[in-house]
Every structure is written in C-alpha cells, then in structure tokens.
Amino acid sequence: MYHQIVPEPQGVYDRNPDDFRAELERLAREDYVPVTAAEYSTGVMDLPAGTHPVVLTFDDSTDSQLRVGVDGEPADDCAVGILRDVAARHEGFRPVATFFVNGDPFPATGGRKALAWLHENGFEIGNHTLNHAKLSALPAAGVQREIAANQKAIADDAPGARVLSMGLPFGIQPDPARLALAGSHAGVSYRHRGAYLVGANPAPSPYAASFDPVGIPRIRSAGPDAEDAELGSSRWLDKLADGTVRRYTSDGDPERISFPEGGRGEVAGEHRERPGRTRACVGGGLSPAPPLPETGAEAPDPFSRGLRPRTPAPQAPARLEGAAPAPQAPARLEGAAPAPQAPPATSPRLRPGVPPRRYPQAGLI
Ligand SMILES: [Zn+2]
After folding, report:
1. Distance between Cα 319 and ligand 1 center (Å)
2. Angle formed at CA 337 by CA 332 and CA 341, multiple of 5 degrees
3. Ligand 1 centre and the CA of 365: distance in Å?
4. How many angstroms separate the alpha carbon of residue 115 from the centre of ligand 1?
5. Omega into 200 within 30° of 0, i.e. cis?
6. What is the Å distance from ligand 1's center to 101 Cα?
7. pTM of the entire structure?
8. What range(s) does the NodB homology domain occupy (predicted)?
9. Tens digits of residue pLDDT in 118-155
C-alpha cells in the first residue's frame, strides 16, 4: 500500500522515490510479479511457476503517483514512471497496479486524461469514495452516494473501465460492511470484488476459507527501521522470504486449485470438493519448489493455484475485462481440464494426475 512518493516524506504513509524504486527492485529480485487487486480478488492470476503475486495499491490519486505529460507519457519520477522503468529492466515484472481514486483525481494531469491513461495502459482504477469519506460516520444512503458518485466520475473519465475494487478511506468499513461491496445511488450501481483495509498483514489466497472480500488486509510500504516497522513491507518481505510466513507461489498451472495434504480445511468450502478440480497433493505432501533461479531453496509454500507463463502486462487487463465479475473465478476452475495438459517446462513437478499446489498467503502491499 502506497500513498505519496515524494522526496520529503511527510509521514509513515509516504516513501521517497529511491526507497520506492528499491522496494520494487527487491520484489522483482525475489520473484514477485504484480497483479491488480481485481486479478487477485477474482483469482485470475496467471503467472510463471515459482513466482509470487503481489498487489501494488496507491491511495488518494495524488500527483506524485501519476503525472502524464503533453507527450502522453508519465513523468519519470512519479510512481508510475518508476514502476514502468523497473518493469522494463526486469523481465516478467508486470507494470500494473491498482489506484484507489477520489473525486478530482491526479489534479496536475486532470482526471479525464489520467484515468484514461491508466485504463488504456493496463492499470486498475479502484474506488476510494468521492470525498475520501469516513464511511462509518455516514448513513447507508450516504455511503452508497459516496461510492456510486465516484464510480460514475470514474466511468465518465475512463469509459469502459470496470470498477471492481474498493479502497476503504482510513481503512474504515461502513455499517453494514457489505455496503462497500454492493449498493446503488441515483441510478448508479456498484459491485466490488474486494474492499481493502489499511493494515497490516499479508492477505490470504482468494480461494482460502479465511478470504473475506469485505475486509482484505494490506501492508503499508515501510523500511526496516520505520515506525511500526513490524507492520511494514520490509519486515513482512523478510518473513515471506525466509519462510516464517507462508507465501503464495505459482506452480504454473492456471487450471486448477491444489493444496498440500492436510490442507483441505484451509480451502474455502465452495472450492473444497471439486473432483478433478481441487485435489490434495499425493505422495506425502508438497513437491519440492520448482528449480527456478533464486527460488529453489525457499521453504515449502502451503497453497498455490496454477499459473501459466505470463502474458505481457498490457494483455492482462483485456482478459480481465472480458471476464464476468462474480461467478467467473470459480467457473474458470470448474471448467478447466485437469489432467491432460502437458506440464510447463519450468515446472517439472506438474504432470497429469499430480495437482498443482496452492498457497494461501499472498504478499499484499
Ligand atoms: Zn485515502
């Protein structure tokens, strides 16, 4: 979770451009691949074996995140410019992120130009309410007005963009919390696949029983010595890297959910009993981690769902747009052909009859 990327950070939610770049470099080095919040919450993550999905989110639609010049390109020193530069230097590191925007977003560029640019370049636009509202202080009608009015503004600026994710201002849920996911006002309806909190730990797999779309945790970007560093990204990445905390790792097969022996109880009920779709690993537990560079020595990961060699970043949004929101993630699994696929060359442990693994912890920042 990022807010401002500025040379002089004003608080724990800001990072300077060098630290931001260093964190992205670390993610790339440690085989993380960015996915959007919508890709995460719908379970449509299609990544090479051995990589780990990470959702990069930006709140408040500030100029330090995106400034688009007269040439139509983002400034080199804004967050999008830095992310695109890092992605260009690291093959497979997708230049995608989710921007939770308010009314009048990215004022230096202008909402119409900025949101259109984001949408056209594969970034996700999420809802952060029209006025950065404290939703718990509003009646149900007010909550829906704040969200629906902002969705309309987004749709006006970026025609065709589907708003599937909601960043809760201050991390505060409305009452009832489900109003963050669905509602309507003045003829505008919204339906989100996930509402995101502010703190403070990795999010579970979207197929885990513990996944709750009403309140998905995020991790604040923070250095190892920052205030409350234990809740920040550097410390969490350390724990995810050394195996202290399990992380979601792709096995390269997008067609099925699988899990290690004994892990069935961690799979959400609707995905638990799917003959031919969701199966326990055989042969005494997890297969070894795929022998990819820099990943072979990692601790076993408990769950994974399949992934396939990555398509270039700009193609992912198109795929997402083509998917119906709610029923599709499960349906995609149910409709998948389990066994006959040839295993990807990068994932020798995938073979007919041996289900891929699935990991419940996704490192969310
Ligand atoms: Zn905010």
Report:
1. 28
2. 125
3. 15
4. 17
5. yes
6. 8
7. 0.77
8. 52-178
9. 999 999 999 999 999 999 999 999 999 999 999 999 99
